[in-house]
TrEMBL record, chain A:
Catalysed reactions, semicolon-separated: D-glucose 6-phosphate + NADP(+) = 6-phospho-D-glucono-1,5-lactone + NADPH + H(+)
Identification of the protein by name: Glucose-6-phosphate 1-dehydrogenase
Gene Ontology molecular function: glucose-6-phosphate dehydrogenase activity; NADP binding
InterPro entries attached to this UniProt entry: G6P_DH (IPR001282), G6P_DH_AS (IPR019796), G6P_DH_C (IPR022675), G6P_DH_NAD-bd (IPR022674), NAD(P)-bd_dom_sf (IPR036291)
EC number in record: 1.1.1.49
PANTHER family: GLUCOSE-6-PHOSPHATE 1-DEHYDROGENASE, GLUCOSE-6-PHOSPHATE 1-DEHYDROGENASE G6PD
Entry annotation: catalytic residues: H265 (proton acceptor)
Pathway assignment: Carbohydrate degradation; pentose phosphate pathway; D-ribulose 5-phosphate from D-glucose 6-phosphate (oxidative stage): step 1/3
Annotated Glucose-6-phosphate dehydrogenase NAD-binding domain residues: 27-212
Residues in coiled coil: none
Gene Ontology annotations for the cellular component aspect, listed alphabetically: cytosol
Class of this enzyme: oxidoreductase
Originating gene: zwf
Residues given in the record as substrate binding sites: H203, K207, E241, D260, K365
TrEMBL record, chain B:
Residues of the Glucose-6-phosphate dehydrogenase assembly protein OpcA C-terminal domain: 190-353
Pfam families in UniProt: OpcA_G6PD_assem, OpcA_G6PD_C
InterPro entries listed in its UniProt record: G6PDH_assembly_OpcA (IPR004555), OpcA_G6PD_C (IPR046802), OpcA_G6PD_N (IPR046801)
Coiled coil: none
Species: Thiorhodococcus mannitoliphagus
Signal peptide (UniProt feature, chain positions): none
Domain Glucose-6-phosphate dehydrogenase assembly protein OpcA N-terminal span(s) in chain numbering: 64-177
Protein name: Glucose-6-phosphate dehydrogenase
Length: 515, 374
């Protein structure tokens, strides 16, 4: 809720703990698609269960498929039954379903937008919605231009300086597939919407534990004094997926893990871990700090790409005792594909805080388990008093922020083993969200949808940050394109990656964490 | 969730007994698994009588599932004529990935009216340091009207959580709690406030100026119907509305044991509020009608609200608007308490509302408010 509106409604003031989702219509482009069914509708339903949706709220699924309102509700119900974190409650469903509508239309035809406009205008007064709309583009990137210009040309975008009714646009990643195309997407978006109306979503940032990074860093006084090159030896970020490409092979073949994971999720994660303290929690302040960090990444020179970046592809192997096919044997993958399914890289942040601290990133598919974490390894004590024998060296302190699964954080510290001799043994102090708080964390999409309805852009990507991350990635893409490699290093499916990745980190005297 | 066996012990043995429980759980771990303790708070649960203490004990596993804590059940047993304090301990744990996690060390103390000070001294020694302490007042008596027993435990708490549902004399209870709050820095919280959340939400949204322009400023009457024991709930909701809308209570009249009438003034004119109690049904606000006069080119109109099943439904007087609803998200008492334990700072809105409730109580008292069960 904007301050203007809160001020106008005295019953809304003073509610500091809550987000204020505003009355609006959510139009889902691609409403009959996979993202809508698996994520968006279940997220909306869970928000409704918690009483967090505004009462003046409607959803219009908008897509080319011929569906009636009733058929769309059946589609939504199926999505909730299969993918919601909580079971469908019949009474709540009946209420929720009354807010769901469907409008068929071809995104490329002006008539479809006119029909959408008429449909929204018919539905909204019934719910007391004053014309505020939130358009969610749950569509392939190739349709973005068509849709945003279609919206603008049909008069479906509210003036940028108008508080109410508002228009907001949510765009899914990827924003482009390289720097130039990302700029092109941003140009199209900004030709039709003002930047403050745009919400570029990266669902990773909606995860509770990702947000906890800020809470942990800036809500405690003990970490921040140590959060610099004087005390930190290196940082490892791992985002491992247990599955191969599966049903996403078609998309993945054109993307690769560098575009799919590093350019967005991992660099956004890194920006939260490494950014300077914000002076306020206001969206633009946080986003400025994240941008600053991305701009401090040491540029990857083309002749250094081979030395700093390892890419690889999974070959056949075993996953939990079962045969797992190699990437080139997956359906819809070219037999001579050079799309990388694994990347390990070393980067540096050229600023005062992080000078000389290597950041190691590894991410891949078909790995032994699904795990995402950021591990901060502190420097060894300056003078060894304990465990001076080389067989049992003193292990450094590690603070691990686990994103998934078992969300939480752990701190490895050395403690004396009981007994007459002074021997230090590493123990782990472990905090797990699930076991401490018991409650189920909301899905990332729940939080992010609520934020868009409330007009809070903190967890969304701004144009400059998107372009900054592509700017850093681009030399790697260029170097790979120029290399003309026909074979990539391989790693067996179900392993932690190729030997080349081990060599990359080993060269600095470090090792990947065992996860 | 597991828990260990209970047996009476000498209060001085409590810590030793807790250590023995820990050791016992550790011994039963396989393959070197570890036992950890998750604790976010110390929670003292004050109960009136054995029956309520048993009820409290049943709530603990669900409480600590959401908010791990060291829990002390403090049961005042009238028939205990001496100042003897009886105690036992137990624990509640659950299996985590690689070990057992103790989510609650559960300590029970039984004492008579003369033993409150003695029991308090035991509690003082058992509170885990560096963790907040909350006093959850399960007794149906308003805490501040309980005298020495409340005085014995309240100073140890950072937060006092009570529930005004069922108070026999709501005006007296409201006055006592607001007075106590003024003289103490301890945060107080009435669970009724949390129950009102869906009501506050639907009123905020349905009366938004973007939906019905100017309606909030032109309200001229409210009629509210509630079930038995729910007058404090209605009182708090009206206190919130009045404080938000800058109304001033003029007089309150209990026309019968079942009806209360208030007169308020606002910058835009007088407001009449009628509160009716039903003889039967759940302790909740059942329905409400808010009406507003015409003005600023807008017609007079109203909105009806009704608690039906698990929803509060809104029926606008303007039939071009569609009815809306909001789920009530029924929560067990212990879930509400767990949620409140995580909010240790005072809620400014709640504080403003109870301060207003006090002003409302004062005008009602001057008109001989009822003292029968509400």
């Amino acid at each position: 809720m904007t301050e203007t509106d809160a001020d106008a409604n005295p019953l809304m003031t003073g509610r500091s703990e809550e987000l204020f989702p505003q009355a609006c219509t959510l139009v889902i482009f691609g409403g009959a698609g996979d993202l809508s069914k698996r994520k968006l509708i279940p997220a909306l339903y869970n928000l409704a269960l918690d009483g967090l949706l505004p009462t003046q709220f409607a959803v219009i699924g908008f897509a080319i498929d011929e569906l009636s309102d009733e058929a769309f509700r059946d589609f939504a119900r199926d999505g909730i039954e299969r993918f919601s974190r909580r079971q469908l409650d019949e009474e709540e469903w009946q209420d929720f379903a009354e807010h769901l509508f469907y409008q068929q239309g071809d995104f490329g035809e002006a008539a479809a937008y006119a029909a959408l406009k008429a449909r929204a205008a018919e539905i909204e007064p019934r719910f007391g919605i004053a014309g505020s709309r939130l358009y969610y583009l749950a569509i392939p990137p190739s349709f973005i231009d068509t849709c945003v210009f279609g919206l603008r040309d049909s008069g479906l975008v509210a003036p940028a300086d108008q508080d109410l009714p508002f228009t907001r646009l949510v765009v899914e990643k990827p924003i482009g597939r390289d720097l130039e195309s990302a700029r092109g997407v941003n140009r199209s978006l900004q030709a039709c919407f003002a930047e403050h109306q745009l919400y570029r979503i990266d669902h990773y940032l909606g995860k509770e534990t990702v947000q906890n990074i800020l809470a942990m860093r800036f809500g405690n006084s003990i970490f921040e004094p140590l959060w610099n090159s004087k005390h930190i030896d290196h940082v490892q970020i791992t985002v491992a997926e247990a599955e191969g490409v599966g049903t996403r092979a078609g998309y993945f073949e054109t993307a690769g893990v560098l575009r799919d994971m590093v350019q967005n999720h991992i660099l956004q994660l890194l920006s939260l871990v490494a950014m300077e303290p914000p002076w306020s929690m206001r969206a633009d302040v946080i986003r400025d700090r994240r941008l600053d960090l991305l701009q401090c990444l040491r540029p990857m020179l083309s002749h250094e790409v081979d030395r700093q970046v390892v890419r690889a592809q999974y070959a056949s192997g075993f996953f939990r005792g079962k045969d797992a096919p190699g990437y080139r044997r997956e359906e819809r993958v070219a037999a001579d594909s050079t799309t990388e399914t694994f990347v390990a890289l070393r980067l540096f942040i050229d600023n005062w805080r992080w000078a000389g601290v290597p950041i190691y990133i590894r991410t891949g598919k078909a790995m032994p388990k699904r795990v995402s974490e950021v591990a901060v390894q502190f420097k060894a004590v300056p003078h060894m008093l304990f465990n001076t024998d080389t067989d049992h060296p003193l292990e450094p302190n590690v603070l691990a922020l686990r994103i998934q699964p078992d969300e939480g954080l752990s701190l490895r510290i050395g403690t004396k083993l009981p007994g007459p001799k002074v021997k230090i043994y590493p123990v782990k102090m472990d905090f797990r969200y699930g076991s401490t708080f018991g409650d189920q964390s909301p899905e990332a999409y729940e939080r992010l949808l609520l934020d868009v309805m409330a007009g809070d852009a903190t967890l969304f990507m701004r144009d400059d940050a998107v372009e900054a991350s592509w700017h850093w990635i681009q030399p790697i893409l260029d170097a790979w394109a120029a290399s003309g490699e026909r074979w990539l290093p391989e790693y067996p499916a179900g392993s932690w990656g190729p030997i080349e990745a081990d060599r990359l980190i080993d060269a600095d005297g470090h090792a990947w964490r065992r996860l | 969730m597991n828990h260990s066996v209970e047996h009476y012990i000498d209060p001085v043995e409590i810590e030793r007994e807790l250590a023995a429980i820990w050791a016992s759980i550790s011994r039963h771990q396989k393959d070197g698994g570890t036992v950890t303790r998750a604790s976010m708070s110390n929670v003292m649960m004050f109960c009136d009588g054995e029956e309520q203490a048993l009820d409290a004990a049943e709530r603990i596993p669900r409480l600590v599932q959401h908010h791990p804590a060291r829990v002390l059940v403090l049961a005042l047993i009238d028939e205990h004529s001496t100042d003897e304090v009886r105690a036992w301990v137990t624990s509640h744990s659950r299996q985590t990935g690689d070990g057992q996690q103790v989510c609650a060390e559960h300590i029970e103390l039984r004492f008579g009216a003369g033993g409150a000070e003695r029991a308090a001294s035991i509690v003082r020694s058992l509170l885990i340091s560096d963790l907040p302490a909350a006093l959850w007042w399960l007794s149906p008596r308003p805490p501040a009207l309980t005298g020495p027993v409340f005085d014995a435990f309240a100073p140890m708490a950072n937060q006092i959580i009570y529930d005004s549902i069922g108070w026999a004399d709501p005006p007296r209870g409201v006055l006592a709690m607001t007075q106590w709050s003024k003289n103490n820095r301890t945060v107080i919280f009435n669970l009724a406030w949390r129950r009102l959340k869906p009501w506050r939400r639907i009123l905020s949204q349905s009366l938004s100026p973007t939906i019905v322009p100017g309606a909030l400023q032109r309200i001229d009457s409210i009629e509210l119907h509630h079930g038995p024991h729910a007058l404090p709930l209605a009182w708090l909701l009206l206190g919130w509305l009045a404080s938000r809308l800058d109304w001033k209570p003029q007089k309150g009249l209990a026309t019968s044991g079942k009806q209360l009438i208030w007169q308020f003034t606002s910058p835009n004119g007088p407001i009449r509020i009628a509160v009716h109690r039903r003889d039967e049904g759940p302790p909740r606000i059942d329905r409400m009608r808010i009406a507003w006069r015409s003005g600023d080119g807008q017609p007079a109109s109203h909105a009806d609200y009704q608690h039906e099943g698990h929803h509060i439904r809104h029926f606008p007087g303007d039939t071009t608007l569609r009815p809306s609803s909001i789920p009530t998200v029924d929560q067990r008492l212990e879930q509400m308490v767990a949620a409140q334990l995580a909010h240790r700072a005072g809620d400014a809105l709640f504080t403003a509302s109870i301060a207003f409730s006090e002003a409302m109580a004062k005008v009602v008292k001057s008109a001989n408010a009822p003292t029968a069960s509400q």
